[in-house]
Design brief:
By secondary structure, this protein is mostly helical. It has 2 domains: 1-127, no CATH class; 145-396, no CATH class. It is built from 14 helices and no strands. Helix 10 (228-255) packs parallel to helix 13, helix 12 packs across helix 14 (364-395) and helix 13 (311-350) packs antiparallel against helix 14 (364-395). The radius of gyration is 23 Å and the shape is globular. The chain crosses the membrane at residues 55-72, 92-112, 133-155, 175-201, 230-251, 271-292, 324-344, 364-386. Keywords: Membrane, Transmembrane, Transmembrane helix. This is FtsX-like permease family protein.
C-alpha cells in the first residue's frame, strides 16, 4: 500500500509539473514534435530529476533510518526484530537512484502521453474525452470496479469458502487478506475515476454549502474548479491516508483486539511503523504542491486585486477555497471509510469479534484530514495574499 501511495503521489506531482510547463512543451509541438516525442523528452527530464532526488534522499535518510530502527527495536513486542547495522553501500545507492529514475520517468511518460495525446491525432485509445477519461481509462475503471465488486461480494459468502480461496489456515487471516485486497482495489478504483467523481462532488456543493454566509463563495468555487489537477493531487493522497489509517485503527482496536494483549506504547509503535511512511510521502507531496502552484496562486491573487478585491475580500475568498478543499477531502474519506466499515462488520460477525467503534468512527480521520487541509491551504494562501497586498501598498 505504501508503494501504491508513492506511485500515485509521484503521478500527481508529475502531472502538475507537465501542466505547469505545458506552454513550453506546446512550442515543441508547434515545431513538429508529436506526442510520443514530447513524452520521451519529458520522461527523460523527469527521470534525471528522479535520479537526483534519489541521490539526495538516500544520504538525507541514512541517519534517520538508523535511529528510527533502533527505536522500533526498543518498543515492546518488536524486540524480536533482528539487529541490523546500517551502513552506506554503493549497491543500495545505485539501486535507489535507478528505481527512482525509472519510476518517475515512467510516470512522466504516461502523464505526458495522456496530456498531449490530441496534438496531432483526432482518435486513439489515449485520447481524452470531455470528462478527462480516455477509452483506456474507461476500460481500467471497469476492471478495477469489477474487481472491487467481486472482493466485496466475498464478505457475504460462506466464510469457509473464503478461507479456502485465500488458502489461509485461520478465518481471521483470510478476512485480513480480503480486506487488504479490498483497500488496494478501492484505491485503484477511486484513482481511476477521480476525474468523474470530483466534478460531481464540486457541482453538488452549491446546493448544501452555506453560500449566503460568504459572498466570495462563487469566486472560490470557480477558482477551485479551474485547478482540477491541484484538487486531485490534494484529495487523492489524503483519501489513501484516511483509508489506510482507519483500516489499521479498526485492526488495532477491534478485529485484532490488540488492546487486550498489548500496551499503549506498542500500539503507537505499530501505527507509526506502518503509517509513518505514507504520512511522510503525503507531507512531501503537500510541500511539493505548494511550491509548484506558487506562481499560479500569485497570478490568481493579482487578478482578483485588479477587479477590485480588498484584502478582506481576498482573505474571505481564500477561506472559502480552503473550506471547499477540506469538505471534498472529508466527503471522500467518509465514503471510503463507510465502504470499508461494512465488510469489517461482516468479518467481525463471522469471527465472533466485538466491534468497539460504531458508525460515527468513519468520520473521525476524514474530519482530521479535512481540517488539516483547510488549515494548511488557508495559512499558505493567506500568507501569499498578505505578502502581495503589502507589496502592492508599498509600491503605491
Amino acid at each position: 500500500m505504501r508503494l501504491i501511495t508513492l506511485i500515485l503521489v509521484i503521478s500527481g506531482i508529475t502531472r502538475l509539473l507537465i501542466n505547469k510547463f505545458k506552454s513550453d512543451y506546446e512550442l515543441w509541438a508547434t515545431l513538429g514534435a508529436n506526442s510520443s516525442q514530447l513524452a520521451l523528452l519529458i520522461s527523460g527530464q523527469m527521470s534525471l530529476s528522479g535520479m537526483i532526488g534519489g541521490l539526495l534522499g538516500y544520504f538525507l535518510s541514512y541517519p534517520l533510518v538508523g535511529s528510527f530502527y533502533s527505536w522500533v527495536r526498543t518498543t515492546p513486542g518488536m524486540r524480536e526484530f533482528p539487529v541490523i547495522h546500517m551502513s552506506l553501500q554503493i549497491s543500495s545507492l545505485l539501486l535507489t537512484i535507478l528505481v527512482m529514475g525509472i519510476v518517475i520517468g515512467i510516470m512522466g511518460f504516461i502523464n505526458s502521453k495522456r496530456i498531449f495525446s490530441g496534438i496531432h491525432t483526432k482518435r486513439g485509445i489515449m485520447k481524452q474525452q470531455k470528462n478527462g477519461l480516455s477509452l483506456f481509462g474507461y476500460i481500467w475503471c471497469v476492471i478495477t470496479y469489477g474487481g472491487l465488486i467481486y472482493v466485496y461480494s466475498l464478505f457475504y459468502k460462506n466464510p469457509l469458502s473464503l478461507a479456502k480461496l485465500f488458502g489461509s489456515p485461520s478465518l481471521e487471516n483470510a478476512y485480513l487478506q480480503a480486506l487488504l485486497a479490498l483497500i488496494i482495489l478501492m484505491i485503484l478504483a477511486i484513482n481511476a475515476s477521480e476525474t468523474l467523481i470530483l466534478p460531481i462532488l464540486m457541482k453538488s456543493l452549491p446546493y448544501w454549502y452555506p453560500t449566503t454566509l460568504m459572498k466570495t463563495f462563487r469566486t472560490a468555487f470557480w477558482s477551485v474548479s479551474e485547478k482540477k489537477d491541484f484538487l486531485r493531487s490534494v484529495t487523492m493522497p489524503l483519501f489513501i491516508f484516511s483509508l489506510i489509517s482507519s483500516f489499521f485503527m479498526y485492526m488495532a482496536f477491534d478485529l485484532a483486539n490488540v488492546t487486550s494483549r498489548r500496551n499503549l506504547s506498542e500500539i503507537i509503535g505499530t501505527l507509526i511503523l506502518f503509517l509513518g511512511a505514507p504520512f511522510l510521502i503525503i507531507l512531501a507531496n503537500t510541500i511539493s504542491l505548494t511550491i509548484i502552484s506558487s506562481s499560479q496562486r500569485s497570478s490568481s491573487t493579482h487578478r482578483l486585486q485588479i477587479i477590485g478585491f480588498s484584502l478582506t475580500d481576498l482573505l474571505s475568498e481564500k477561506c472559502a477555497e480552503a473550506s471547499i478543499y477540506g469538505i471534498i477531502v472529508f466527503i471522500q474519506g467518509v465514503i471510503g471509510n463507510a465502504l470499508l466499515y461494512v465488510p469489517i462488520l461482516q468479518a467481525s460477525y463471522y469471527t465472533h469479534t466485538q466491534m468497539h467503534d460504531g458508525w460515527l468512527s468513519i468520520t473521525w480521520l476524514p474530519a482530521v484530514a479535512g481540517f488539516i487541509v483547510f488549515l494548511f491551504i488557508l495559512i499558505v494562501d493567506g500568507t501569499y495574499v498578505c505578502r502581495i497586498s503589502l507589496s502592492a501598498q508599498a509600491e503605491q
